[in-house]
Amino acid sequence: MNASLHEHGFAIIKNIYSHSEADSLISLIDQASGTQETFRRSAGLFAIRRFLNEIPEAVPQIFNSKLRALIAEEPGPGYFPVKSIYFDKPADSNWFVAYHQDLTISVNNKIDLDGYSAWTVKQGQFAVQPPPAVLENIVTLRIHLDDTDEHNGALHVLKGSHRKGICRPGTIAVTEENGHCCRIKKGGLMMMKPLLVHASQRSSDGRRRRVIHIEFSNMELPGDLQWAERLSL
Predict the structure, then answer these.
(1) Is the bond preceding residue 75 a cis peptide, omega within 30 degrees?
(2) Closest CA to 149 of 103, 108, 192, 180
(3) Are the beta carbons of 157 and 10 closer than 8 angstroms?
């Protein structure tokens, strides 16, 4: 796992959750009212920003003994959640996401700092692109609540692309050698680096793709800047 994450930019880990544990998380999400600003619901997408804050009942179920043991090994001691999003790609969804890198973090305020740029605000939440060292420190876990493959929106990644720094749009080369479809069974997860170039294809076979996306770091931000979604485990 450690070698795959650092060499290829991702690793796939099976059976972190049983099917019943995954179904219990789905039930919690389905019970949420969805009236908050952080909920986005349409025919083609259901997303919850600040997921761990909005549905705190899910925290003890997500951070079970298997996940805690995994985090202690990789990314390692001292890492804490700094961002969380729930994505539901419905069965009839036909949208896709082009190849890109995850280049922003969620913070508590807008502060003028060297190396921090491209500020945005979504649903009242500040986001900013930090220096590369901050992004390189982050590890993302994507918990899969459905079987996921190339037919229902699995991530396609370019192996090793996280080691090339920040890529300008239009300069990303997709080849047969570096392209990989991340097929993951229900209850498994994908661990990845934010600078790994990745995309999501359209769904084509009528199956949903539900994922809980959680980013971790062990870095403190400079000055008065703070992680907006920092969670102590």
Answers:
(1) yes
(2) 180
(3) yes
Q: What's the pLDDT score for residue 173? A: 73
Arithmetic mean of pLDDT, 111-121:
96
Amino acid at 23: D
* pLDDT value for 35: 63
pTM metric for this prediction: 0.92
- Full set of structural domains in the chain with CATH: 2-217 (2.60.120.620)
Q: What is the pLDDT of residue 36?
A: 65
The pLDDT of residue 220 = 96
Long-range CB pairs of 157-160, under 8 A, 24+ apart, other chains included = 157/9, 157/10, 157/182, 157/192, 157/196, 157/197, 157/198, 157/199, 158/99, 158/196, 158/197, 158/198, 159/8, 159/9, 159/10, 160/7, 160/8, 160/9
Confidence at 44, pLDDT banded by 50, 70, 90 = very low
pLDDT, tens digit, 9 for 90 and up, residues 46-55: 788 999 999 9
Residue 28 tokens, joined: 């919690």
**CA 209 to the chain's CA centroid:** 14
Alpha helices for the chain (secondary structure H): 2-8, 19-31, 51-54, 59-62, 65-73, 132-137
> On the CB side of 32, how many CA atoms lie within 13 Å of its CA?
27
Helices (H) and strands (E) in the chain, counts: 6, 14
Encoded amino acid at 92, one letter:
D
